[in-house]
Amino acid sequence: MTIADDQDAPTAVVVVDPDNRVSGWSEGGCQLLGWTAEDTVGRPVADLLAGPVPPGFPGGHAADALSGPVALRHRDGHTVDSVITVQPLRGPQGRVLGHAVTVQRWDRRPVIADRVFEQCPFALGAFDPDLRFLWINASSGRVIAHTEEQVLGKQYREVLPEFDRSLFPERDDKPYTDKLAEVARTGEPARLITVFRPRGSDYANAWATSIWPVRDAEGNVRAVANWGFDMSAEYWARQRLLILNEATTGIGRTLDVVGTARELATTSVPGFTDLVTVDLFDEVLRGEEPPSAPAAGHAEPLTLSRAARHGAAEDPHRSAGPAVPVTHAVHSVAATCMATGRSTVELATEPGVGGEWAFGPGLAADPAHWPPGNPVIDKGIAAEGLTGRITVPLRARGALLGVVTFSRLDRPEAFTADDLILAEQLTAKAAVAIDNARRYVHQSTTALTLQRSLLPQRLPSQEAVEVASRYLPAGTDAEVGGDWFDVIPLSGARVALIMGDVVGHGLHASASMGRLRTAVRTLADVDLPPDELLTHLDDLVLHFASDLQPTSHFQTTAETGATCLYTVYDPVSRRLTLASAGHPLPLVIAPDGTTIPVSAQPGPPLGIGGLPFEATELELPEGSLLALYTDGLVENRERDVDQGIAELLGLLDHRAPSLDNLCDTVMEAMLPEHRTDDAAVLLARTCALDPQHVADRHVEPDVTEVSRARQFAVDQVEAWGLEETGFVTELVVSELVTNAIRYGEPPIRLRLIRDTALICEVSDSSNTAPHLRRARAFDEGGRGLLLVAQLTQGWGTRHTPHGKTIWCAQSLAHSSGETPLPPPGE
Fold it and tell me: For residue 475, what pLDDT is reported?
């Protein structure tokens, strides 16, 4: 008998009689094995086998049914691997009248399965271990633009050569063909996302695919199958999210305008585009307020500075050059975008998917998906080597900062409407970061200008010490701090060396530093001892804190507090007196290179209140080297304070002929490239006043001693060759000694010091301080101190542990001028 067969699924049906001979043969048997009915009917069915008769097969061991693989013999002699089903044919009383045998190739499916796979919306295919096409469904045929008849038996690489290479070789992606071969070789399934650009399309597509081996009953890999579906929309949306995530962490890492512009450029390349340029107004680069946005129809070209330019083929470090001027013509796309505040997309060709490939990102190519006015088709950009360009105005907080362009050169896919959204999001992220950096630059510049104006511009003239100093603000990643120093000449040829550090950064720290420096100068004029001066300064800082208390619940409290080291050096006695309010103690190097220990106990920082400060005194050899510094010089992330102090000690060369050069050496060696705190150093080499330039005399508490004191002073200034000062010296000595005898307490001493000025001092044991007053017309006294003040360039009173000293100073014609300081940062 002959049973009709479905030509799309060749299946052989064989009827076997009780004698195990063929009694019926279908047309499918002819198609499958090449035998006709005339060839097979009447012959033993076992003649069709290519091997031993399996159990359950007619003529073999008894079995009701058989279902499984069997090797059959084709008419031309080759073996056909088949799957057979054997069912008995029974009569009315259940007697077996024969068997029905259904035969299919092992790689075919029943008709219903064929229909399921054929109509599946996913692309399905099967290939032999040599990657020859065995079967594809209709969806797969549409994807590869071939019918099943066109590809059956052909090599995969022959039909789809584009799958034999990676679209993104920089990612080390393995070609899809290699993955198929790997599964066939190893028998291990694989799941992957394949990105490829179909022929005739301007877009790259992303497919989720699975590849698995197909095994026979013995577990041998007989074929490789795959399936896939187009997930381009999801894939590219995820890629955009990844770029935005990278932008979140990669843009705005520093408070540097140009650095942030470069971060925008390097973040966008190559994942999103091939070339990015960022143009900013010069005012933005300088930290100033950006200019007003140009009005629509403006008549002048716009000149900006190109802060960043980065291409896919460029080294990010090589492209990080200085900003260069760039001019945008009046009617250019960039100028129009800045005037209108709207982004523009330029494409070299109409957007869409070309060729016979109909499965591209249709939504992205839909013109209705674009915002009004976009895209602009400009075939002229192709002459620049571009396939597309997005121009976005850079705006933050309502201000126009510049313009950004995203260009594609190497990749043929055109920009989509979703790409425009991504470009605007990247630009908005960078705009806020650039504006933050601009504001920081503005505040930092203001704070630094204020701080430099408050620091001493010149070191005052004095002969007690040779001094040099350096100050460097923090790097670009931190605000200006409150480090400060000062050199203040005191009475008696002494000098005060001060180093301090205010808590906090920015304008507040700079302003607080200025207030503290002014307060120290005022207290130094009173000539207080170091410990008493710091006590008064501590009270002032507490008052500063009360002034800064918030007036509402929503106002933050400003930082208060500071450290200060106050030292006084006397070149006559060669004694250094110091007290510290939480500040590092000075380093002292003797002329022979040994370290002189400073056994002082630092007090609490200023602003604590209620705790005492202790003064320490030590005698220094002439030519000793002192180093006063702030913690920013010796402490950073790489080393602790003790290690930094040890390194600083190793750099202090007491034989250095120039303290200025030594300052430069110290700053260069101690400070890291990326510092986060201010640093200041003040170096001083002590001098000793020649004993021949000091003369003193005990004065008895008797008015007759006044004339002897006058004569002593006149003789001494003449011996020093200062005859021109004799008259004034005689008058002031007479007045000061007379006051000491009348109002003071013994012992009384007169001391003359020849320094940059001629200093006259009268000391007694009384703590009563004199003061100026205006005498009336008929008063017999009260004019002495007024006379001293009029005849000298300065006078004052300083208290000592044993009383007080009244002093006055006359300038000498040959005194040297003030020594200018180098600018901070040099």
Answer: 59
Q: For 646-651, which contacts have Cβ atoms below 8 Å and span 24 or more sequence positions? A: 648/587, 649/587, 649/589, 649/595
- Please report the pLDDT score of residue 166 as a whole number: 61
84 pLDDT higher than 60: yes
pLDDT surpasses 90 at 817? no
Highest mean pLDDT among 43-52, 479-488, 617-626: 617-626
User: Rg (Cα) of the chain, in Å, rounded?
Assistant: 49
**How far, in Å, CA of 225 to CA of 212, rounded?**
6
DSSP 412-456: -PPP-HHHHHHHHHHHHHHHHHHHHHHHHHHHHHHHHHHHHHHS-
Query: Token digits for 322?
Result: 């200085």
Instruction: Identify the CA nearest to 221 among candidates 331, 131, 319.
Output: 131
CB 678 within 8 A of CB 480: yes
Cα gap 621→688, rounded to integer Å? 8
**DSSP string for residues in 235-269:** HHHHHHHHHHHHHHHHSSSSS-HHHHHHHHHHHHT
C-alpha to C-alpha distance for 215 and 321, rounded to whole angstroms: 61
Burial annotation 395-418 (CB, 10 A radius, 16+ → b, else e): bbeebbbbbbbbbbbebebbbbbb
Residue in this structure with the two tokens 């950073």, named with its chain if needed: 636
Residue 808: count other Cβ atoms within 10 Å of its Cβ: 26
Strands 376-377, 344-347: parallel, antiparallel or unpaired by DSSP? parallel
pLDDT in tens, 369-382: 788 888 888 888 88
Q: How close are the terminal C-alpha atoms of the chain, in Å? A: 109
Look up residue 52 and give its two tokens. 């031993």
CA–CA gap between residue 304 and residue 337 (Å, rounded)? 14
For residues 797 and 526, the answer to whether their CB atoms sit within 8 Å is no
In angstroms, the Cα distances linking 624 to 180, 193, 333, 694, 824 are 82, 75, 69, 21, 25
Model confidence over 546-604: pLDDT tens digits?
655 544 444 434 446 789 999 999 999 999 999 999 999 999 999 999 999 998 888 89
- Give the tokens for residue 567: 């030292």
